[in-house]
Write a structure and sequence with these properties.
49% of the residues lie in helices and 11% in strands. It is built from 13 helices and ten strands. The strands form three sheets. It has a five-stranded mixed β-sheet with strand order 2-3-4-6-5. A three-stranded antiparallel β-sheet has the order 1-8-7. A two-stranded parallel ribbon has the order 9-10. The longest helix has 25 residues.
């Protein structure tokens, strides 16, 4: 009887996997998603003291300082738009926390309090998987006329993939986060119709034109877990620290827009991640992504990526 139960579970699993792959192939990729530019926010009471809590449909903004309604509704609009954008991709990327409490977005007055809370050095925003939260520096978001909403989008994509991130490899998490950050173009709006241009524009924020960007070797890079990723990033010079993010972004773009079967392959990977997440005793495994990077195809994938981008004005090469 036990054997029959296991056999039934295996067959069901395979059917689900096939259905998700078919769904990924048939559903259209999103084009332009235009947001309203503002979101409904429940403001704290007038007699409240710090920390001030601003509640939206999906999040709790917890701030050390009071925030004007104009600023918080604009910030909240972008935050709320991320979940919508992630859900529009015809893959099972959306995997928010199953906790009843809304995820928190903590806003700290300055770098000192931000770092003390666990924020990453030399950053303005940080996703904490352990706390199911995002940390932001107020001086980089509330004190600027043009806050870095691409960074906010990046960190909130992590939050919207929270349940499966711990079972994936770093390239997948960071690549998807930067994919949506690249598509973001205005408060709460995204344009997926020309991701080549979007990615080139994002790269130009970090590298001068005509720079030859040396990407890490694919084989070692895609096997990095998050601890190894952080170690790699810390070893790089400050001007080179976007390189792992760009490499991840180009790999994700390869599967979404270059490889004709790439989206189905990614959905197969996502199905494995969701299965691991549903059984927390199962540890992350490189086997889940083995079909994405067969040893015999690694050089071909590297060549395809470099050829594609070099023809389009982004000069990259794998080390």
């Amino acid at each position: 009887m036990k054997f029959l139960s296991l056999l039934f579970a295996l067959i069901t699993c395979q059917l689900c996997l096939a259905q998700e792959a078919t769904k990924a192939k048939k559903k259209p990729w999103p084009t332009v998603l235009k947001g309203k530019g503002h979101a409904k926010v429940i403001m704290p009471d007038s007699n409240s003291t710090a920390p001030f809590i601003y509640t939206t449909k999906s999040y709790r903004f917890i701030s050390q300082q009071q925030i004007s309604k104009t600023k918080i509704t604009k910030l909240a609009a972008t935050a709320e738009s991320v979940a919508s954008a992630v859900s529009r991709i015809p893959l099972s990327l959306s995997a928010p926390s199953q906790s009843e409490a809304k995820p928190a977005i903590y806003i700290y007055n300055d770098e000192e309090s931000y770092l003390k809370a666990g924020g990453a050095p030399a950053s303005a925003g940080y996703y904490s998987g352990r706390k199911n939260a995002v940390f932001l520096r107020a001086d980089k978001f509330l004190g600027k006329k043009k806050p870095n909403y691409q960074l906010l989008t990046h960190e909130l994509v992590h939050l919207n993939m929270h349940s499966i991130i711990g079972y994936s490899r770093a390239w997948f998490s960071e690549g998807n986060a930067d994919y949506f950050a690249s598509a973001f173009y205005a408060t709460s709006s995204y344009n997926f119709t020309d991701m080549t241009r979007n990615i080139k524009n994002r790269a130009r924020h970090f590298y001068p034109d005509n720079t030859i960007i040396e990407l890490p070797p694919l084989k070692e890079f895609v096997e990095l877990d998050f601890r190894q990723w952080r170690k790699l990033n810390q070893q790089l010079a400050p001007e080179d620290r976007y390189t792992p993010y760009l490499a991840s972004l180009l790999i994700v773009h390869y599967f979404y827009h270059i490889d004709p079967d790439g989206r189905e392959k990614i959905q197969t990977y996502l199905t494995a991640l969701h299965q691991r997440a549903s059984n927390r005793k199962r540890r992350p495994s490189l086997e889940d992504q083995a079909h994405l990077f067969p040893a015999a195809d690694l050089n071909k994938i590297q060549t395809t990526i470099t050829t594609y981008w070099n023809k389009r004005g982004l000069k990259v090469k794998f080390q």
